[in-house]
Specification:
The complex is a heterodimer of chains A (168) and B (206). With 168 residues, chain A is mainly α. Chain A contains nine helices and no strands. Chain B has four helices and five strands, in the order ααβαββαββ. The chains are: A mainly alpha (168), B alpha+beta (206). Chains A and B meet through helix 2, helix 3, helix 4, helix 6 and helix 7 of A and helix 1 and helix 2 of B.
Chain lengths: 168, 206
């Protein structure tokens, strides 16, 4: 149904719009949460959705999926509110511990993530935390899939080094 | 897959779980100026998306009520519906903890709007965000209704950077607007607006 609606996006009526965006709300919210720590992710998603509503006639399915378009709008809104990608944060795992695993180890991991370069941190958060595919992450980061993969590889190597140093 | 991969994926799942539970049900009010978060949501479809509501759209009939009336079935004086927003008649003899004037003083309504008011049991989708409990629980609220124009809406005070974006509508566009104030706490509990019947060509549909 969504695919069928895409071709006539400019003619999507308000009653259909929620159906159109609903499958992507979770990932939009996760992206907002990872992108702009300290800002209510619901506010970011809201801004992105209204932007999507206003710009729906300009959506071009030839340039990407609805999902990536919505993610781009979400990222743009988060960036507009916080200014830079470098503020990507996950929060303190101690505060948000869910009873799973080793909180101290999670804290080490997240501290290590904060020590990554902005681009590496962005790639790690998009793929491992926001749970985007490499393809979606590439579109969100406005780079190639190969660049995402190499950035992730560099990030993992750097994380391994940081975690090892922390254990010494 | 390396151990680091597994740790990242596990921590990612944990993080998503937490982010997922931080839905509007647990978010605290975002206002930093003493004013509470308020929302001007149009079109209704956007409200549906934002509320994360996939079912249970409550119809709100267009029924005018006057101050302190005792409606048989008080309903919000809008011309469209918002998912999760509904009003029921306040129990007979209910007077509330605060007066209409006290509620009006905090409602943030444009001075010239001359709203009607009444008490009603309201379920409010923004309640969790305002610290007013579950969106499914009805609370006694003062309801103010008035017709406003786009000028009124743009003048409506809301904390910069908070709350929703108000789409642009042609000058003179008329809206049916509702402001809610929680009677117990005197907390502004959201404001909602719909295009009035027969208003300008501005429409929620393409």
């Amino acid at each position: 149904m969504v695919n069928g609606m895409v071709d006539q996006l400019a003619e999507v009526r308000s009653s259909e719009f929620d159906q159109w965006v609903a499958p992507h709300l979770d990932v939009m919210r996760r992206l907002a949460a990872a992108t702009a720590s300290g800002i209510d992710p619901d506010d970011i998603v809201q801004e992105a959705l209204i932007r999507a509503w206003k710009k729906r006639s300009s959506f071009d399915p030839a340039r990407g999926s609805v999902r990536t378009w919505l993610l781009a709008l979400t990222a743009d809104q988060a960036r507009r509110l916080r200014g830079r990608w470098r503020i990507w944060e996950l929060g303190d795992p101690v505060a948000i511990a869910t009873g799973r695993g080793d909180v101290a180890a999670d804290l080490d991991l997240r501290q290590a993530i904060t020590a990554l370069s902005a681009r590496q941190r962005q790639a790690v958060l998009l793929v491992y935390y926001v749970d985007l595919s490499v393809a979606d992450a590439a579109r969100t980061m406005k780079c190639s899939e190969g660049t995402v993969k190499s950035t992730l590889s560099d990030a993992r190597a750097r994380l391994a080094q940081l975690l090892e140093d922390g254990n010494d | 897959m390396t151990d680091l991969d597994k740790r990242l994926e596990a921590d990612g799942r944990s993080w998503r779980l937490v982010v997922g539970t931080q839905s509007s049900a647990t978010l605290t009010p975002t206002a930093s100026t003493g004013r509470t978060w308020r929302r001007w949501l149009m079109p209704a479809a956007v409200a549906a998306a934002l509320a994360g509501v996939t079912a249970g759209v409550f119809g709100l009939a267009h029924v005018s009520r006057t101050h302190h009336s005792s409606p048989a079935a008080a309903q919000l004086d809008l011309n469209c519906s918002f998912p999760g927003l509904a009003a029921q008649q306040a129990p007979s003899g209910t007077t509330g903890q605060h007066s209409s004037a006290q509620a009006l003083a905090v409602a943030g309504i444009p001075a010239h709007a001359q709203p009607k008011s009444y008490l009603a049991m309201v379920t409010d989708p923004t309640a969790p965000k305002l610290g007013l409990g579950s969106p499914d629980d009805a609370r006694l609220m003062w309801v103010f209704t008035a017709q406003t124009t786009d000028g009124d809406l743009s003048q409506a005070s809301r904390p910069p950077g908070h709350g929703p974006y108000m789409p642009s509508y042609p000058a003179g566009t008329v809206f049916n607007s509702v402001w809610l104030v929680d009677d117990l706490t005197l907390t502004p509990a959201g404001s909602f607006a719909c295009l009035a019947s027969g208003s300008s060509s501005a429409s929620t549909s393409p």
